[in-house]
Write a structure and sequence with these properties.
With 485 residues, the chain is α+β, with helices and mostly antiparallel strands. Helix content is 40%, strand content 21%. Helix 5 crosses helix 6 and helix 14 packs across helix 15. The chain has 15 helices and 16 strands. The strands form four sheets. A nine-stranded mixed β-sheet has the order 2-6-7-10-1-11-12-13-14. It is elongated and about 95 Å long. The chain folds into three domains: 286 residues, no CATH class; 116 residues, no CATH class; 60 residues, Arc Repressor Mutant, subunit A.
Length: 485
């Protein structure tokens, strides 16, 4: 049997994070009433002249600089022509040659090995509108047109065909999304269509240099969906070739519910878009000072931040990777840590509280950490109260529950509910003696050499003290009492 390898290329559209559209002042607000955010320019009225949004140019240049692109200083636009049912003028304003950004790269990690993926280009273009074919569960025998999205700025990123597995595509998109979110040049929300990806997949016998027939896959609304669609498509193509069939060049849709790709349309020949210079937008040059200023605005990116977390806070690679996987999470962690004087003692404990208690709550409520009812400052206060012995870890969980429900300062909760940890030795000695006298079986087992029996006595002490006895002091006193008696 012939062994095949996959060759994968990605075309990623990212909605640029601007308040207004790329060629007019209409809002980019998501979820507005249909056709509410429109004007004569984005509805393509005769004689309407586009005006370029400077912020959109800044966003794409900043993204290009972060991904090691060459920035082409000459900025020109072109008309890409074919029939668009959702664009009234029947052409798209885009860039042909040169794009704003040429020849970049992004490094991904696969099986603990780094791999550089080359990126051909990033160019600037306008989005199309949206056709609605059904309302709720009712399919329509006509289509409705919503032009709110028409004219929103996009940056299209095109990779070289260098990805060879579904997992590599997943890692590339995850890393790209993370970097762009750190830059704040796009929100990358796939559910809202702010990050869209088309995938080109082909297979060929291992060792063959010529590329196989390319199939394009559309309609994926998550990064995991991209991975799953590629995995299915690779296997589909292998089965065809192994049974003597022929791969057709076509566009296919990913049906996530069924877990399959389905044919959308054939694509026997490359489309001729008849690009020509956009006459309504004058070419202009980007100055060195403009590019240099944007370079200064690039923040600390995920990999650099991860390395710093490991070095400065003595975190494991796993912990640092997780914390820097989104900017919001890394910011929350560092904001919490920066409110404390003793960062080194608190660094790991804050990680644990975010990983376990806070994440569990956020996952259940489907809330992102930036909207958490527990502020980073209050979480830091809770950790500080544990470290200075004001409360035990067990009491901290009770306090945490109240904090999450009511967004309350932990110190107020402790005061109102009388949850201060008991560290007074005289009080703890009294409770320990009661626990020893009431648990003769555990005492006998402990003296017989069963060290685990001590846990039963500690448990009784904690129960009698309503969980408020200092565990460290309890352990020390019990060992002393058991030794002396």
């Amino acid at each position: 049997m012939t062994n095949y390898e996959a060759i994968i290329g990605l075309e990623v559209h990212l909605q640029i994070n601007t308040k207004s559209k790329i060629f007019c002042e209409c809002s980019t607000q998501f979820g507005a009433e249909p056709n509410a955010n429109t004007c004569v320019i984005c509805t393509s009225q005769p004689g309407a002249i586009p005006i370029l949004n400077k912020k959109a140019v800044e966003a794409i240049v900043k993204t290009g600089l972060a991904l090691n692109f060459t920035i082409n200083k000459q900025c020109t636009f072109a008309r890409k022509q074919y029939f668009y049912p959702d664009v009234a003028k029947n052409y798209q304003i885009t860039q042909s040659e040169p794009p704003l950004c040429s020849k970049g790269k992004l490094t991904i990690t696969i099986n603990k090995q780094e791999k550089v993926i080359n990126i051909t280009r990033i160019h600037l273009e306008e989005d199309a509108g949206k056709l609605i074919h059904e309302i709720g569960s009712r399919k329509l025998d006509y289509s409705l047109l919503d032009l709110n999205r028409a004219g929103i700025g996009l940056m299209e990123l095109v990779t070289e065909p260098e990805l060879v597995s579904p997992q590599e595509a997943f890692e590339f998109l995850t890393e790209l999304k993370n970097i762009v979110e750190y830059l704040r040049t796009s929100e990358c929300d796939m559910e809202k269509g702010k990050m869209r990806c088309d995938v080109n997949v082909s297979i060929r016998p291992i060792g063959q240099k010529k590329l196989g027939t390319r199939v394009e896959i559309k309609n994926m609304n998550s990064i995991s969906g991209v991975r799953d669609a590629i995995a299915y498509e690779v296997e589909r193509q292998k089965k065809i070739l192994k049974t003597g069939g022929k791969i057709l060049q076509e566009t296919r849709l990913w049906e996530a519910d069924e877990g399959v790709t389905k044919s959308m349309r054939s694509k026997e020949n490359a489309l001729d878009y008849r690009y020509f210079p956009e006459p309504d937008l004058v070419p202009f040059d980007l100055s060195d000072s403009f590019i240099e200023e944007l370079q200064k605005q690039i923040p600390e990116l995920p990999k650099a931040r991860k390395a710093r977390f490991i070095k400065d806070y003595n975190l494991s690679e796993y912990d640092a990777s997780y914390l820097t996987s989104t900017k919001a999470l890394a910011d929350y962690y560092e904001e919490a840590l920066n409110t404390l004087k003793d960062k080194k003692s608190a660094a790991k404990l804050i990680v644990n509280w975010i990983f376990t208690e806070l994440n569990a709550k956020l996952n259940i409520s489907k809330t992102c950490i930036s909207k958490s009812s527990i502020s980073s400052r209050n979480l830091a206060k809770l950790v500080s109260l544990i470290l200075d012995g004001t409360i035990s870890g067990k009491i901290a969980k009770i306090v945490f529950e109240e904090m999450y429900k009511n967004s309350t300062d932990p110190q107020l909760i402790i005061k109102e509910k009388g949850l201060l940890q008991i560290s007074d030795e005289i009080t703890i000695i009294k409770i320990c003696k009661e626990a020893i006298s009431e648990n003769s079986k555990a005492v006998s087992e402990f003296k017989a050499g069963k060290k685990k029996a001590l846990g039963a006595i500690i448990g009784l002490v904690m129960k009698k003290s309503n969980g408020q006895a200092n565990p460290k002091v309890v352990n020390e006193i019990l060992l002393k009492e058991l030794k002396d008696n």
